[in-house]
Amino acid sequence: MKNPPVLVIQMQRLGDLVLSFPLLGWLKMRYPDTPIWVVAEPVFFKGLMTLSPEVTYFPPEAAPALAKESYTAVINLSHRPEAAKLAGAARTEELYGLYQSNGATRIKGDWHLYRAGLTHNNRHNAFHWADLNALDCIGTSMLQKTAWPPMRYASGSEGRIGLFLGASEQDKHPDAAFWAAFAEKLLAAGFKPVLLGGKAEMPLAARTAAILKAPALNMAGRFSLPEFVEVLRSLRLLVTPDTGPMHVAAWTGTPTLNLSLGPVSAWETAPFPPGHFVLQSTLSCVGCWRCKHPRPYCHDQFSPERIASLVRMILSRTPAALSTLHLPGQRLLQSSRSTAGLFRLVPLDISGRKLQPAYGRDFLRRFWQAYFFHTLADGKSESLHTAFSALATAMPAIAERLPAASLQLSRILSLGLRKGHHALGDSFWLQFPPFLRPLTGYLQQALSNEDYSRPAYAHALKLVETLFAALPR
Prior knowledge:
alpha/beta, six-stranded mixed sheet
């Protein structure tokens, strides 16, 4: 007799569902004799059946019936209220994510708490969404042992380059003038650009085609999701902003060049499998949660001519050429995996190795990744001492300020421990400088989740002590 199923609740958008696929594969390995059930939107899962790991899908409307079942584990990856209600009602041996219990909404799992703490606070985060989906319930040894298939460079596809035009927000994608100029450069280089998108991208595609006045193939809005998957398989490369179809393409093995612009963080939502390319600005605000300007300044760094040249180099399969690139105002990165099995972005070009603001912040991300992986996971990446030494070399001013800011945090937590159930304001985490907010954001979530109890304060102080132990005496 099979074990009770594992239930994964993923009621979000297309890209979120695809970023759940690694978790589904890992769950099948962890629970080999256990059915995996997934609650997701039919408009998405029906079109991805040929790509998805072998699981059983249910629509959100099935939640009342599913709540009456018993489960080996329930993992809620959604923030919708009905998802939290289902997670709280289901009988299960293990529970992770947002759930409702006794009229209160809480979070189960250290890594789900960590992700909740990233809201408007992800500036120095280096954990990808797909990894965060799994870290609470999948051992790090399984991440390290995962073999990722190589990208599939299509042959006989007549040089077709897909241009996915839109994204969930206007600030996250280029405008029609950019796409038209880029398509023109591709045509001049002998490629065949294909304008892609869903129904929402049809107006943008029409404007692009009208400006271009050339035989670029406008196929926006013409495919169902299963048909779109097959189109992606036929491309030599997909050039795309940060969007759900980008993740579909990456999962098919189609090489992607992600134009990472606007309020997105490539460390969280870039193409997840190894080998894909990310182009981003080197402005200090890169990776913002929300742009404060009428038009994001980072858009000005993206040149159709430069990106067309990158396309030629990528498809020539000559990594040495990419490593000699100098991209003023930008850098080129490639998705990879660390020795700990975690997603990482590796700078490829010359400019990406210089101590620019965006590059210096990589060392702060690296330090906090090492810290949280050390304190929350069952494995270790590099030592905290090593990560701090690298940070001190790259950003000495921040390294010098970190001990004093940590001491201030420790004093506030000690006061809360003495008082007991001493609630901190919702903006507690903002009282500290940005370089410490990865920790204060997490502590804000963890303390609130436990109603600011003494055990919660005691645990928070232990986390700060771990940080102190990594700093020089």
